[in-house]
Amino acid sequence: MKYNFKGKWVVENVKPYYNPLIEPTKTIGRHLIWSNFEIEDFTQKTVPNFIMKCNTEGAEELKKEYGISYEGNIYYGKNHDPAQALRNCVNPKIGLHVLNCLEKLNSEKAGKTCATKHVIPPKSKDSGILPNFT
Predict the structure, then answer these.
(1) What predicted TM-score, i.e. pTM, was given to this entire model?
(2) Of 47 and 103, more confident
């Protein structure tokens, strides 16, 4: 992507147990991020005992933390852990921060000033599961 794609891009992966082959552009919490635009530093607290959230109670705690609301549990494949899909999510505040860094870059290129407050709202009609940024 670095050499063949002409637009802006970003790739995220959770920190693996091994050293990544390609050094990330930025590390935020447990997320490695590669991009072709600057991502400012950002600190996001992690839910205590995050990795141990592996039951319905843990899933509900993560839903509340992420501002996500849906009924029941999400399972994929043969997985029976109701919190697995939530543990695999990028924290919505981190995702919003990355998108706002891109928005800031676009605003600066257009000669506009950019507010430091996170400004990109979720699109409710385009999403099935929505974060609630309050």
Answers:
(1) 0.72
(2) 103
